[in-house]
Amino acid sequence: MEQVLTTAQTRKLRDRAGPLVAAAYIAAGICLLPMVAVAIAAATGGTETVAHLIDTVLGRYTANTVLLVGLVALGTFALGVGTAWLVTMTRFPGVRILEIALVLPLAYPAYVLAYAYTHVLDHPGIVQTTLRAVTGWGPRDYWFPEIRSLGGAAAMLILVLYPYVYLLTRAAFLQQGGATFLAARALGHGPWAAFVRVSLPMARPAIAGGVLLAVMETIADFGTVSYFGVQTFATGIYTSWFSMADRAAAAQLALCLLAFALLLALLERAQRGEARYHDPSRRQHRMPPIPLSGPVAWLAVLICAVPVILGALLPAVILLEMGAGSTQSLFSPRYLGFLQNSVTLAGIAAVLTVLAAIAVGYNLRLHPGRRAQGAAYLARLGYAVPGGVIAVGLLVPFAAFDNALDAFMEARFGISTGLLVTGSIWLLIVAYMVRFLAAALGAYEGGQSTVHANMDAAARSLGQTPIGTLRRVHIPILTPSLLTALLIVFVDVMKELPATLIMRPFNFDTLAVQAHRLASDERLDGAAVPSLVIVAVGLLPVILICRQVGRHR
């Protein structure tokens, strides 16, 4: 009887979490809304637009997007896995510094690197100018790699995205035991063969996850490909929406990009299948690092130092030099307005996104069933949806709502309501929440896993409701994880460009938009000023990650 009574009390207490459960499903529904809206808008756009896209730009958009994704996937795989292996499994001069420094490029948006390297490597830049001065060559007397190209865009994206692969792969290598690797060596395999046949397959899920993150960021990128003139689905959506004023074309391109992103996510999940990797000797035998010496050691130093120099140190020097020669003043009222707009959007979006992550994650803990799991899956799905797709998916239904409301109020009361929702910052903040809820949810669930179920049972036995348990038990324990989630979302919003460009209210520009506008006008010196602020803010979560990297070896 006592057990039945306890179960009944538990159910009664769960019922009091109604507002939190409702918030979880509302957040999941909002994440689903852009995808459904894009699909409906694309289906009702008419076949003329589809035929025109197929005859004109669809083939070029597809080829460029697929080629860019392939190059970035290969580049981030080679750079991320190679550096992770070297700093984890070998010892060479400066390894402890380099294993932390390899994370630094994560602070840079790819479009900021594009501005910096264009300033240096373009025809009027210092590199080609010096080359012509030294050799006496004319503009047509030599060949120099074109930075404003698909290959250049891939290089910029590889330099800033390889840390995703590096961090996950390094963690996987650290968790591997040494017995299997040593067994492969005992059977006659050299270090390279043992790495390929043993260590690499065991780290495959982590590597695939890191490469998938890099690929998702690649298909969502707008600033780099737009500045370099590479026509992809991301640039096509923006061009169709603004330059051509063709919402049907924008929705259909957004649907193609959405399908591509979801296909990549499904392929990654399918290739993992039911594979599991168990190493019972992991705790007893740590992998002994291989000491390197002579030329091989210095080659390892070079391999690990080059991405740090090209992806973080050199761009910082270039941007500082560009900013020093610029007429843009960060402390002018205009720039302070850009900074205020950026911080306002990022702050509100971070708080709202973390609150949504708490609702979704705690609902899954309270009701670990299919509905709660489905809501959590939809919440995570937003990270696979590029910002341009989310922008189109939210603007189409809410613009229709605003127009219908305005027509109704005009006809009934003679009052024009204008764009109540579409022209506000709140719809843009909702887009940020959809885009970055997965990141906040991951940080929250990582901390929630440390809260034992017995703590919940003890709190409820003392009469606490689920919301009381969350407020008095979970939140104090999860404060570090929640602060990390807030910081991650804040920085991601500061860097985000495509959704901001499409959805921002009139005369409400951010630092990212200002940098893009100045770079589009070829005023690269001016673009360096807002870019430096974005990078400085981006260093905050990277510093936290670096501290974690330094602690866990």
> What letter string, H or E per element, gives the SSE order?
HHHHEHHHHHHHHHHEHHHHHHHHHH
**Overall domain count:** 2
Quickly count the helices. Answer: 24
What is the average of the pLDDT values? 82
Portion in beta strands: under 5%
Supply the helix-strand structural class: mainly alpha
Distance from N terminus to C terminus (CA atoms, Å) equals 51 Å
CATH secondary-structure class of the largest domain? Mainly Alpha
Shape: globular
For this entry, give a set of tags:
MetI-like fold; globular; disordered N terminus
Provide a compact summary of the structure:
This protein has about 550 residues and is mainly α. It is about 75% helix and about 0% strand. Strands 1-2 form a two-stranded parallel ribbon.
Secondary-structure blueprint:
Elements (H helix, E strand, L loop, with lengths): L1 H14 L2 H26 L3 H10 L1 H32 E2 L3 H7 L8 H12 L4 H10 L14 H26 L3 H8 L4 H12 L1 H17 L2 H6 L4 H11 L3 H26 L17 E2 L2 H31 L8 H34 L3 H12 L5 H27 L11 H24 L4 H9 L4 H30 L2 H6 L7 H10 L3 H28 L2
Parallel strand pairs: 1-2
